[in-house]
Design a protein that fits this description.
About 50% of the residues lie in helices and about 15% in strands. By secondary structure, the chain is α/β, with parallel strands linked by helices.
Length: about 325
């Protein structure tokens, strides 16, 4: 049997080594924690700076698109009807209806200003937008003024009829009450080059607007009948909206346009003025442009106006 001898002199040295190892290990762990902490601080700092820089850029980009944060004071909401009225255009029901909904339903908006500068376009698009205006006026009780800029004609004037008051400048062009169907007649040019188009139509009027085939007398009569019917509907709506303001015995159905002062004299508009002057004098409020507006080109062009609207909606 062998007895194990423990050297009592070496025990303190082993304890010291163990303590030193533990201290070194603790120091290393603290150093690692400190490194990780600073790493997260640096990441958070750079992320915050990046987010702030992007927010600043987005604010400038949104400003270039015409968007502004809605002020906390009472405002007049401006809705733009610019360019040709039609499906797929900036002045379409698809673009205008959501803008009108937002403007009418904003608690800060005390009145709506339709900023019109359009030669007209598709009457059905005007009908959709006009019915939306009538509904929102009834729901909110907010007044609507139509301001005609350079031009407010045909379907654009039809849209203005849904406002409580129509205002135009002295140099504005107003009117063009009526309807029109246009088409090219190229059949003689095709004959000159011996070009023949084969057409198989199911009815006598199915091919009536084909530019490479001469229009029959029956189709010409049909087209004129359609135009006359639409003109009657337009004229009836015009007279019902303007009522006693119209000049007695005056023919409004010639399709012509009138300058601002003459338009006032015959009852097409209610006042000569501009959007800036009327808003300032009558409502004593600032304006806020709700759009729609064209997307500006530049960095991140794919962002688009709808994306900007969603981002701005989060901070309004």
């Amino acid at each position: 049997m062998t007895n194990k001898v423990v050297d009592q002199n070496n025990q303190p040295q082993e304890d010291i080594k163990s303590l030193l190892a533990d201290q070194v290990l603790m120091d290393l762990m603290n150093e690692r924690k400190s490194e990780r902490r600073w790493k997260w601080i640096k990441r958070f700092t750079f992320s915050t700076i990046g987010a702030l820089l992007f927010a600043v850029y987005l604010a400038f980009y949104a400003s270039s698109l015409g968007y502004r944060l809605i002020p906390n004071t009472e405002i007049v909401g401006v809705v733009n009807v610019t360019g040709s009225i039609g499906s797929g255009q900036l002045a379409s029901a698809e673009e205008l209806v959501p803008v009108l909904e937002k403007a009418f339903n904003s608690p800060k908006v005390k009145a709506i200003a339709l900023n019109i500068d359009s030669p007209g376009g598709q009457p059905f698009e005007s009908e959709r937008v006009g019915q939306t205006i009538d509904r929102l006026k009834s729901e909110t009780g907010k007044p609507v003024y139509a301001f005609i800029g350079n031009t407010g004609a045909s379907a654009a004037y039809l849209l203005a009829l849904h406002a409580d008051k129509i205002i135009a400048g002295r140099y504005s062009l107003v009117g063009s009450i009526g309807a029109v169907i246009t088409g090219w007649d190229l059949h003689k040019l095709a004959e000159k080059f011996d070009v023949i188009q084969r057409v198989y139509a199911s009815g006598v009027h199915k091919n009536m607007l084909n530019p490479f085939v001469a229009m029959s007398k029956e189709s010409e009569a049909k087209a004129q009948k359609m135009v006359n019917q639409m003109a009657v509907v337009f004229t009836d709506e015009f007279k019902s909206k303007r009522g006693a303001k119209l000049k007695e015995g005056f023919d409004y159905t010639t399709g012509e346009i009138w300058g601002g002062e003459e338009a006032l004299a015959i009852g097409l508009i209610d006042e000569i003025g501009t959007i800036e002057g009327v808003v300032s004098n009558e409502w004593h409020a600032k304006t806020h442009d709700f759009g729609p507006t064209n997307q500006a080109k530049g960095f991140l062009p794919q962002l688009g106006t709808k994306a900007v609207e969603k981002v701005l909606a989060l901070v309004e």
